[in-house]
Amino acid sequence: MFPLYSCYTPIILLLFSCNTLSILPLLSCYTPTTLLLYSYYTPAIRKLFSYFVLLHRVPLIKGKSARESLEEQGLWDEYRGKFPFNPTRFDDQSLSVSSEQMTNDADLAYFGVISIGTPPQSFTVIFDTGSSNLWIPSIYCSSAACANHNKFNPGLSSTFKNAGKSLSIQYGTGSMTGFEGFDTVVVGGIPVKNQIFGLSQSEAPFMAHMKADGILGLAYPRLAASQATPVFDNMMTQHLVNQDMFSVYLTRNSEVGSMVTFGGVDPNHYYGQIAWIPLSSQMYWQITVDSVTVNGQIVACNGGCQAIVDTGTSNIVGPQADISSMARAVGAYSANGDNVVNCNSINNMPAMVFHIHGQAFTLPASTYSTYYGCRTGLQSSNSDLWILGDIFIRQYYSIFSRAQNMVGLALAR
């Protein structure tokens, strides 16, 4: 202990001088300088520091996606036609007060558990930075999609209040309809009181094949249907987090280990420095990408493009011409609607490099070409807005700062 203590920098000695016997007094003596300089210290010091910062973690489970479940049943081709990937929510600039456009993504595989009500009722949700509403199935839903998911019973919660508003969420060729209510929502041990959320009364058949019961949106309030206050906004307003930020770590192969951390960053999940990127718009977590290169040549996003960092989409999505150019550059070919590669060629395939805010973010072939077999995870859409989904986030630990309106990216461990 003493030899280690003697190696501490003055700023760390300042922390210990505040109070070494109690964590809470230690937290109370932080200074802005302390928090600013924290990011410059070695990983060992950052790890030590993290033990004194109150973080709220939600473990995520990497389970089977809807695509995997459907493929196992031999139904994927049928459902692909009925429920195509449709990121129309990114083009809708006139969001009505009662509906929210969102994506059908059959490849989503990361889910976490929250609870709602008093006593608590548990639900598995997708933590989605590409939407802003929280919704879960209700006992009033008779759809097949609700039959195999947990359903909220308002009558069993002493703290539930009906908001008196209807809710409609459009996705693919179907929709979720229901109503809104208020109750206590517990996320990562944080009790968020009087949180508005949606209770479904009908859901499209496709939802029956998704592992998650519902969705917890983490984008900005501007995107919220019915002007609902997002969960994280209430966390900030109710002073439930130390810092107005949350971060996401996604494992590559392991079913366990993925994490959403509310109130700060976890240095155990990344290497090196954090690159802070200012938002270009405060609705989604939207940033400017300067270009995409392969082997030093620009293959997409020439002259710059807009992209959102979206945990609610599994793939990298872009305009059709750009995605086709990227696929050709890495040696992919089209098969059954997917851009795929020869599994034996992965070690010889080039990396894709996203140039963002003057820095290069590299995706080696091993990160994009082994996605559910040898699919690249490159997917085209009719929108000009790019989506940097889970393939990108698995490679780069992603920090979402509402205090600074920035996204932080660091190489994931």
Fraction of residues in β-strands: 35-45%
Number of continuous helical runs: 12
Going by CATH, the architecture of the largest domain would be Beta Barrel
For the record, give the distance between the C-alpha atoms at the N and C termini, rounded to a whole number.
Answer: 27 Å
Percent in helix: 10-25%
Mean pLDDT: 81
Text of the CATH class of the largest domain: Mainly Beta
The name of the CATH superfamily of the largest domain reads Acid Proteases
Largest sheet: 9 strands, mixed
What is the overall shape? globular
How large, in whole angstroms, is the Cα Rg? Answer: 22 Å
Weakly predicted, low-confidence segments: 1-52, 88-104
CATH fold topology of the largest domain: Cathepsin D, subunit A, domain 1
Overall tally of domains: 2
Output the structural class: alpha+beta
Count the E strands. 25
Keywords: Aspartyl protease, Digestion, Disulfide bond, Hydrolase, Protease
EC number: 3.4.23.1
Pfam families: A1_Propeptide, Asp
Domain Peptidase A1: 110-410
